[in-house]
Amino acid sequence: MSARCTEVLEETHRLVFDIVRGLPRANGAEPRLLDVGCWDGETTQRLANAIGARAYGLEVFPEQAERARARGIEVSIQDLESRPFPWPDESMDVVIANQVLEHLKNVWLPMSEIFRVLRTGGRCIIGVPNLASLHNRLLLALGLQPTSIRTFGPHVRGFTLRELRAFVERGGGFEVERALAAGFYPLPSPWGRLPSRIWPAAGVIAIVVARKARAMDSPWLAWVRGERERGIQTSFET
Question: Most CB contacts within 10 A, which of 7, 36, 43, 126?
């Protein structure tokens, strides 16, 4: 990983931490924070500590999941594209999925599960590489492949900030409260902070913060079923 890429990811973690720290606190019981793709739990624990929350995680790699468990995080090891989350409806106060959806063909099941386990009034924070970042726009203008989704790379989906927002808001269950960005190539951090605030649609990492406005049937899985009824195959069967 390049130094500039590492720098942007660190800036993304900083921004997500600031977002979580600024969320309104729920009254009553200890809040619960779920980190989808928690890795070794280091960042998850920091985020949970920021709001005094109990930490939960989902991770596909057993070795990293065990490290997260050693930090006191309740972790489920599973494939996000094929299995529902193991927690009850409306059991989480904050759900984070940072740098996850771009790795998945089936984004409808995990998005549906994020919505299901989040309590009404709770927040989700989702971050993905921005297909419409300034440097990707310049690369495409030159006839070159954007760095956020390459043939020989780990990402299988591309999102612009507008597309990410539309995906999260589909059906009206979520209300996006903030749409912002982290990083602004070719500027190094923290020089890119002001441009990314002024023009978030061209930042390196697209981030949305959404509040669950109402409980309802999953609009993402409804879309999949509709495609199947039209005879169009998706990468997920319901």
Answer: 126
